[in-house]
Amino acid sequence: MERHRPKRALGQNFLVDPNLQRKIVDALGAGADDEVVEIGPGQGALTRHLVGRVGRLVLVELDDTLADRLASELGDRPEVSVVHADILDVDLADLVADPGSARIVGNIPYNITTPILFHLLSRPRPLEIVLMVQQEVAERITAEAGTGSYGALAVGVQTVAEAERLFRVGRGAFHPVPRVDSVVIRVRPRMPPPLSESEEARLRDVVRAAFQWRRKQLGKILRDHPDLHVPPETIETIATAVGFARTDRPERLSPDDFVRLAAHLP
Questions:
Q1: Residue 240 confidence (pLDDT)
Q2: For 77-104, what is each residue's pLDDT tens digit?
Q3: pLDDT of residue 6
Q4: Per DSSP, which regions of 93-228 are E strands?
């Protein structure tokens, strides 16, 4: 593919190390029976290793020039589709025949990693997601309760999926060279979903409120946050049932604790 000038506005940093390209595709583990959606294929760094390897490949590219080039170069392959769109504006069910068995891969813009990840984790959820993300974001996604990186992002992901860091990618593997190192992560949604859609919505409200006031004690958050307003006389009962002290702060609660907390709130 003809060299493309990266666009800063789209957060374009192209992966130019072929060994790492192959390593990411191998981590996805997709084969001839799989539908794969690649987010931001760009100049085809991962695409060239996926074409001919997977049963169906859907390329979602926002950049006008790159989308046109991909369509021109791969348009004669019936198993490849190029979708010129922002992934945040496209539902997985509109891209693949069976969302629950689809695999997602991508080197995504770091400035919108969190919106993209939560968009991919909206229902219907794919089988597996393998993404290149900023190292600091990978740490936040996979953080354990009680650590400095733990917060709403970790709870939001880990309550509906299993997340793991696979391997680090140095900044020298990209053009242009970013200012940060990267990590490839794997996210596997829990199947079947452990919570109903209404339970997930309630959980999101609780987690958002808790970490908005993360420096405050849980008893005060439950009592005073405008999205919660838990009656003071019930807080001790809830704390005992879930297993925390009123003086604990939000980072003390594990993802499972937050699920129990949301279930006990009025």
A1: 96
A2: 999 999 999 999 999 999 999 999 999 9
A3: 45
A4: 103-107, 128-134, 161-169, 174-175, 182-189
Task: Supply the pLDDT for residue 266.
Answer: 84
What does the CA dihedral 216, 222, 224, 227 come to, rounded to 10 degrees? 110
> What stretches in the chain show pLDDT beneath 70?
1-12
List 182's β-bridge partners, or say none. Answer: 134, 169
Give yes or no for a contact between 166 and 96, defined as CB atoms under 8 angstroms apart: no
Spatial contact of 81 and 59, defined as CB atoms under 8 Å apart:
yes
**Can you read off the two tokens belonging to residue 63?**
């950049």
Topology (CATH level 3) of domain 8-189: Rossmann fold (3.40.50)
| DSSP letter string, 191-205 | SS-SS-HHHHHHHHH
pTM above 0.85, yes or no: yes
Q: CATH second-level architecture of 197-264?
A: Orthogonal Bundle (1.10)
Instruction: For the beta carbon of residue 159, count every other beta carbon within 10 angstroms.
Output: 23
Q: Is residue 16 helix, strand or coil?
A: coil
What is the number of alpha carbons within 13 Å of residue 104 lying toward its C-beta?
32
